[in-house]
């Protein structure tokens, strides 16, 4: 299975392995810098050459922690405050969509709004893997109309280019369509 991540930032990251005994923290690793060849230094390490270090001395230690083939692994990226009114965490695009849906439901209840039609609020998964979750939701609900909630691309960072934000890119690219 492919993942929709760049290989470049995967080395030296923290991860959680989801086991039957609970999450186990791991760090992704590669051959130590001191043992690198000149060729190793000049390339991006592909994900299939990484390992996850959980502090186990052997296979029995890893099994005692609950680690087994097929365990899910997720990046460990706790919510963090950056400066003033800026935040970092994983999966912002999905989390913001969930917050918007919950806020819409809260406001509807608060204002006593009862729509004449059926509304379905769906939080789906695996958009990076071919929209699998959304596709399943559409097949189950069969909506007349669907509204996707997704955040845009940040461009307010060093070397970020405003024209590649989704809003600007749509304006710019619409001139290219024939």
What level of helicity do the residues show? Answer: 25-40%
Strand content: 15-25%
How many strands?
Answer: 6
Chain-averaged pLDDT: 82
Query: What's the tally of helices?
Result: 5
Question: Over the alpha carbons, how many angstroms does the gyration radius reach?
Answer: 22 Å
Structural class: alpha+beta
* Morphology call: extended
| Largest sheet descriptor | 4 strands, antiparallel
Structural account:
- The protein has helices at 38-41, 59-64, 92-110, 132-141, 166-174; strands spanning 14-19, 22-29, 51-53, 72-75, 80-82, 86-88.
- The chain is α+β, with helices and mostly antiparallel strands and 178 residues long.
- Strands 3-2-1-4 form a four-stranded antiparallel beta sheet, with no helix packed on it. A two-stranded antiparallel ribbon has the order 5-6.
- The longest helix is centred in the middle third of the chain and has 19 residues, at 92-110.
What's the helix and strand layout?
Elements: E1 14-19, E2 22-29, H1 38-41, E3 51-53, H2 59-64, E4 72-75, E5 80-82, E6 86-88, H3 92-110, H4 132-141, H5 166-174
Antiparallel strand pairs: 1-2, 1-4, 2-3, 5-6
Brief synopsis:
With 178 residues, the chain is of the alpha+beta class. Helices cover 27% and strands 15% of the residues. The radius of gyration is 22 Å and the shape is extended.
